[in-house]
Amino acid sequence: MPALFSGLRVGATLAVIGVVVGEMVGGNIGLGYLLVFGEGAANTAMVFVSIFLLTLIGILAYVAVIVLERRVLHY
Predict the structure, then answer these.
(1) Cα(22)–Cα(31) distance, rounded to whole angstroms?
(2) What is the CA radius of gyration of the chain?
(3) 43: DSSP letter
(4) pTM of the model
(5) CA–CA separation, 38 vs 54, rounded Å?
(6) Which of 43, 53, 59, 61 fits a disulfide with 38 by CB distance 3.0 to 4.6 angstroms?
């Protein structure tokens, strides 16, 4: 079980990266698209808000896996 949760911790953060790259390449909605759109429009505030929100989502996904791990593994 510890190895499974280690993989889930890594996978949770990489999933956020994968979704953002997918939105940047071929999406027309989402934070990845907002990041590219803000960059093209020279809107620095939009870019920084997008980066902040993506960071927050990644941290929340990581913490959710840690909380689940502590709940499942009692030792």
Answers:
(1) 10
(2) 15
(3) -
(4) 0.84
(5) 14
(6) 43
